[in-house]
Write a structure and sequence with these properties.
single chain, about 1250 residues, alpha+beta, about 25% helix, Ubiquitin carboxyl-terminal hydrolase 40, Peptidase_C19_UCH, cysteine-type deubiquitinase activity, Peptidase_C19
Length: about 1250
């Protein structure tokens, strides 16, 4: 939809653009681009109006619509000039549409603008940038036009061209009574999902019948009873133009989002609608339609781009594909080659000579002479080698040439002489060369011949401003994919266009619009000529030699630039002599010779290059471009000093670096920089003498990057004779000059620099040993290769601490929050320790870990935020149990009932280190990691430690005693606040369940579910209950303090359930043995109390879903359970987390035989997601009429949730306000813009 979003406007009427040029000109003076080779005009995209452009082009290329609109004159529509006059009605939308169509037909511009039209719609800039649907626009635009044309002769324009009718009929199978209802349409909307193409969709809609039978009967008005019937629809009236909208966009109820159907959907170029019509006795041509427009959508359902394929019915455009053009060129070359061969053929030449003779007979010798005069060479020289002697050649072609009895004279045989066209035995034409030249094939005539020979009209792709010719077969590419057909437009085959409309864009255009477009084209041509003239003007900067001086190898102005430089605008088509004369006129004070030389500003200053010669040559011809610098002087000297122009004398500005001594600020060694100008032809030895002291050396940067040490090389002795330019030095290059005492930084063997200014920096070290009253901080000079032990020794010396700390201290990085991180091994370099220059380190007590040791943090207990964090150093080869013992010893914790866990990304106790014998290194425990000492021993490997809960569904409050649990038990009534794991808004959840913690069970993962139930029965809590056997227990996985997945197979191993380390099991007692099969679904069913908003006790219902899990099957199962008729119950599923009931449809809608075969939606999919343990409410319609399933507790729960959500919203707003105070420039997520309904504002004309 937002294709070409920032493309510039080419419109002449609203916004304009000039042709290509180096100067930026005002858009008010720039003419729009001309039409391209297709001779058709596109429409400018205003930002998001590609959907509008595609529909407008379709209407424009519907000649009947366009001409009907043109037939409405100003006397009916009004004048645009009167729009602001009071009490004057101007129908602005049709007027602007007329004007736009006239521009598309006649105005010589690449693309027209729709700005005026969209303003007449009442749209603002936001509307033009917003995405909309072209099918929606089609209906709204037609409605706006109908309203705008009320009271005019065009009031029925839309109805006349696009209106059709559909009749829906229901036929009683008993009395044959027909009940019908007629519907109007301007476009047909057809399905795409599960349909192969347009014809199948129309067949489903207008041929296939729907039947009312069995439980789904129809009440016949004539029979006054429920009967079997058939329902069908037919097209009653066909419009001249049939618009078909494809339902490409659908909604996925499982994912709760829209999506686009990209499957293959075919549609024919020509279609016969007779099978779909009510009347089939009309003439065959009444039902035939031809495709003439395809609007295409590229993208998804939330955005994309529209363009349109259109058939040029009136042949207004120039259709010529690139391959066709190439083919025609090849054919022309081939024809020219054949003509040349024909003209060079001796048979053709001899026939031409003989046909021109009046006597029609000539001696053979004279024939050879005439051939020499005509072709400039004799027979023997040109043809004898290939064809033999001329006399023999004539005898060989006796069917054309006739020799006298003595073979001395020759003539053309009479039958061949009389023929104007023919062919000989070799296939050559008998026309003379002069006759062949009467027909000349130009490229235009070839194009016309191609167009005339083609059958039917041609197709174009109109994509906003671009118009490209396409082939009819290209339409097949739009059957499927992300870029596919979205709207189809057909016209009746009967509609024929008059011959005078062919290739005539002025046909039926009103006179006032013709005059307006003609005047606009004249103005366009004038502006293009002015723009072309302006394109040839160039600006020159004339530097006056008398106002310059030579300094340091380059020219510099001695006065201000305004006084030294003269800016001049000239036409580049003028000659150099004209320019010289113009300068003489401007500089009246000039005396002597005037030399003009091209110049260029360099970093060192102005330098001269080439002297301009040849006063007769144009400025463009000698290479002067816009913005060129020209130096005006006498050609010898400037300010009394000789100036050497040319590339060889170009001055270079070099950066010269010298090593400075140690700075007081602790920044260490650094380099000072200065700039020097040298001629590019100077030798390096000269540079060395000028810059380096005796014994010094010069280093060059070989790759241009000053930051890398390896890029600097010492200039060898043999290179000292080379010039500055030849060794690769350019403007801005750096060289390093080292005196003899600085050469310790150079590796003499390789000539490489060993350190550089970017490597020499400092680190900050802060004293945490607390040997003094204050914590001091110092800067230590270091490079990336400095060893950490050296930095520590320097820091102790700078801090003036005792030498005994050298063996009892370490360096620890400090993060931004001031936290001391793990110590750095002393044998590491700065680079290996991954320290940045300028980092802050802390000098602390204690030895630093070696490269084989780990520095770890650990916390005791579950309160990770409030608990103290302790530190320990262990060997990386230590086992988990050894590490745990060291931590217990340091923290003073008794016993061995502990285990270690990692910290997860939420800074909570996460994965347990269950393999106590494993080494820390093998478990990827690294320095700086934090571990948590957690109470309780881990189960052995392969065992699970499972918390067991006692679960009992609570009865309804109004109809049962409250549940009394054991004294030491903990019961959840689920009336408390719950927060989802994702951090969503809190939800008040009240549930009819009771949970009581019973204890933990340690069991092998290979044990069966039955073993888990048996072990649970041994817990003290269960011993007080009388449970006969494990079959009287039902096990659930606890999810969010609520029974989740049902564990149904007692003989299945626990590992197969994939319980995980944190799984919790709740056990539910039963009154009878539980033996659920794999296809059984367990539901909690409760019947509503008549006259009350409440329910009886829930009961367990086992439902076999092996055959189907549909609403129809569930209704029958519940009806059988309660012994009620199916049609007398209503059912709904309860969603306790939302306190909402969702009614399960009765599925009594009318279904055709064909559709009935398709599988109905399963209740286990969206939106019900039916699963074990779900609550199903049942209403008995024999006793109550209400279908409200909610209860008073639901109302209370919803209100509590609403209050909690409001509190959370207020808390978030307060937090956001606080964050805005303390934060600036926070990045926010870009949300999708809300969709806004499309509208067009129309005045009242009734």
């Amino acid at each position: 939809m937002f294709g070409d979003l920032f493309e510039e406007d080419f419109s002449f009427v609203s916004n304009n653009q000039c042709g290509k040029g180096k100067k930026s000109k005002s858009k008010d003076t720039e003419p729009p681009a001309r039409r391209e080779f297709t001779k058709l005009s596109g429409i400018k995209n205003q930002g998001g109006t590609c959907y509008l452009n595609s529909l407008l082009q379709t209407l424009h290329f519907t000649p009947e619509f366009r001409e009907a609109l043109f037939s409405l004159g100003p006397e009916e529509l009004g004048f645009l000039e009167d729009i602001n006059k009071p009490n004057v009605k101007v129908r602005i939308i049709p007027l602007q549409l007329q004007r736009l169509f006239a521009q598309l037909l006649l105005l010589d511009q690449q693309a027209a603008s729709t700005t005026d039209l969209t303003e007449s719609f009442g749209w603002n800039s936001n509307e033009e940038m917003r995405q909309h649907d072209v099918q929606e626009l089609n209906r709204i635009l037609f409605s706006a036009l109908e309203t705008s044309l009320v009271g005019t002769s065009g009031h029925d324009l839309i109805n006349r061209l696009y209106h059709g009718t559909v009749v829906n009929q229901i036929v009683c199978k008993e009395c044959k009574n027909v009940s019908e209802r007629q519907e109007d349409f301007l476009d047909l909307t057809v399905a795409v999902k599960d349909v192969s193409g347009l014809e199948e969709a129309l067949w489903n809609m207008y041929v296939e019948e729907e039947y009312f039978e069995n439980d789904n009967l129809y009440r016949c008005g004539a029979c006054n009873k429920l009967v079997e019937a058939a329902k069908s629809a037919k097209l009653r009236k066909l419009p001249p133009f049939l618009t078909v909208s494809l339902l490409r966009f659908n909604f996925d109820f499982e994912k709760c989002e829209r999506y686009k159907e990209t499957s293959c959907y075919t549609f024919p170029i020509r279609i016969n609608l007779r099978p779909f019509c009510e009347q089939s006795q009309l003439d065959y041509s009444e039902y035939m339609y031809e495709l003439f427009s395809v609007i295409i959508h590229k993208g998804g359902c939330y955005g994309g781009h529209y363009h349109v394929y259109i058939k040029d019915v009136d042949a207004l455009g120039n259709w010529q594909l690139k391959e066709e053009s190439k083919l025609m060129t090849e054919e022309k070359v081939q024809k020219d080659t054949e003509n040349i061969k024909e003209m060079e053929n001796p048979l053709t030449i001899l026939k031409g000579i003989l046909s021109e003779e009046e006597s029609k007979q000539i001696p053979v010798d004279q024939l050879g002479q005439k051939l020499l005069e005509k072709k400039g060479m004799s027979w023997n020289k040109k043809y004898r080698k290939q064809y033999g002697p001329i006399r023999k050649y004539l005898q060989t072609h006796s069917q054309i040439f006739q020799l006298s009895p003595d073979d001395n004279k020759v003539s053309l045989k009479e039958m061949y002489h009389k023929l104007q066209f023919g062919s000989d035995s070799q296939g050559q034409g008998l026309q003379s060369p002069s006759q062949n030249n009467d027909i000349q094939w130009t490229s235009e005539s070839l194009c016309t011949a191609l167009k005339d020979s083609a059958s039917g009209s041609h197709w174009f792709d109109l994509n906003d401003s671009k118009v490209q010719p396409i082939k009819e077969k290209d339409i097949e590419k739009q059957f499927q994919g992300k870029e596919s057909a979205y709207m189809l437009f057909y016209r009746k085959s009967q509609l024929k266009r008059p011959s005078e409309a062919q290739a005539n864009p002025r046909y039926r255009v009103p006179g006032h619009l013709l005059n307006e477009m003609d005047a606009a084209n004249i103005e366009l041509r004038k502006r293009r000529m002015d723009c072309d003239s302006a394109d040839n003007n160039i600006d020159l900067h004339l530097h006056l030699g008398s106002h310059y001086k030579l300094s340091n190898g380059a020219l510099h102005p001695s006065l201000s630039r305004k006084e030294s430089v003269l800016d001049l605008t000239v036409d580049k088509r003028k000659t150099l002599g004209d320019l010289r004369q113009l300068i003489f006129q401007l500089l009246e004070f000039w005396e002597g010779d005037m030399i003009l030389t091209t110049a260029k500003s360099l970093p060192a200053g102005l330098h001269l290059y080439q002297t301009l010669d040849g006063d007769e040559m144009t400025l463009g011809g000698i290479g002067l471009a816009d913005g060129a610098d020209v130096f005006v002087w006498n050609g010898k000297e400037v300010g009394g000093m000789e100036v050497l122009p040319g590339l060889d004398h170009e001055p270079l500005l070099l950066n010269v670096l010298r090593l400075a001594g140690y700075n007081e600020g602790g920044k260490g060694q650094h380099f000072i920089e200065s700039q020097h100008v040298v001629p590019c032809s100077a030798e390096l030895s000269t540079l060395w003498k000028a810059l380096a002291s005796p014994g010094g050396i010069i280093l060059m940067n070989s790759s241009g990057s000053d930051k890398e040490v390896e890029n600097w090389k010492v200039v060898p002795e043999e290179d000292m004779k080379k010039t500055v330019r030849s060794v690769g030095l350019t403007d801005g290059s750096s060289i390093l000059v080292l005196d003899s005492h600085d050469q310790s930084l150079v590796n003499v063997a390789s000539g490489n620099l060993t350190a550089f200014m970017h490597d020499i920096s400092w680190l900050q070290v802060k004293n945490f040993c607390r040997l003094e009253a204050e914590e001091k901080q110092v800067k230590i000079t270091a490079t990336v290769e400095t060893v950490m032990s050296d930095i520590k020794i320097k820091a102790i010396q700078e801090l003036q601490l005792g030498e005994e700390l050298v063996n009892d201290s370490c360096l620890r990085p400090i993060n931004r929050n001031g936290k001391l991180l793990s110590p750095v091994p002393e044998d590491y370099t700065v680079k290996e320790a991954e320290l940045k220059m300028g980092s802050l380190l802390g000098l602390c007590h204690g030895k630093a870990p070696t490269s084989t040791q780990l520095f770890l943090y650990f916390i005791v207990g579950s309160d990770l935020q409030g608990g103290p964090e302790m530190e320990i150093v262990v060997e990386e080869t230590a086992s988990v149990i050894e590490c745990l013992n060291l931590m217990l010893e340091k923290s003073g914790l008794p016993g061995d009932n502990w285990h270690l866990r990692r910290i997860d990304w939420c800074y909570e106790a996460g994965e347990a280190l269950s393999e106590e014998g494993a080494r820390l290194k093998e478990l990827n425990v690294c320095s700086g990691d934090t571990l948590v000492i957690t109470e309780g021993k881990l189960p052995p490997k392969g065992f699970l430690k499972v918390p067991i809960w006692w679960y009992k569904p609570l009865m309804h409050f109004g109809h049962q005693e409250s549940v009394q649990d054991q004294v030491n038990c903990m019961t959840w009534m689920m009336g408390a606040l719950q927060v989802s794991p994702a951090g969503d808004s809190p939800a008040y959840v009240q549930s009819d369940i009771g949970l009581c913690y019973a204890g933990d069970v340690e069991i092998s993962g290979e044990a069966f579910l039955e073993d888990l139930k048996i072990q649970a029965m041994t817990l003290p809590f269960f011993q007080e209950l009388s449970v006969p056997s494990p079959e009287f227990l039902r096990a659930w996985i606890l999810e969010s303090r609520r029974p989740g997945k049902l564990l149904r197979n007692n003989q299945q191993q626990l590992n197969e359930y994939k319980l995980g380390g944190r799984a919790e099991i709740c056990i539910e007692p039963l009154q009878k043995e539980d033996n659920l099969g794999p296809s059984d679904l367990l539901l909690r069913v409760q019947m509503g109390i008549p006259g009350e908003r409440d329910y009886y006790h829930s009961v367990d219902l086992v439902w076999d879903i092996s055959k189907e899990c549909t609403a129809w099957a569930l209704r029958h199962r519940l009806a059988a359970h309660y012994s009620l008729p199916v049609e007398k119950i209503e059912i709904a599923k309860y969603f306790p987390e939302k306190f909402e009931w969702m009614t399960i449809s009765s599925w009594t809608q009318q279904i055709s035989k064909r559709k009935r075969k398709k599988k109905q939606e399963s209740l286990q999919s969206a939106p019900f997601h039916l699963k074990d343990g779900d609550i199903i409410g049942v209403k008995n319609l024999l006793l109550e009429d209400g279908k409200d399933f909610s209860t008073v507790r639901d109302d209370i729960g919803k209100e509590t949730q609403r209050q909690l959500a409001m509190e959370k919203k207020k808390s978030r707003q307060a937090q956001r306000l606080q964050n805005n105070v303390f934060s600036v420039g926070k990045v926010t997520t870009k949300h999708r813009k809300p969709e806004v309904a499309l509208s067009i504002n129309v005045g009242i004309f009734r």
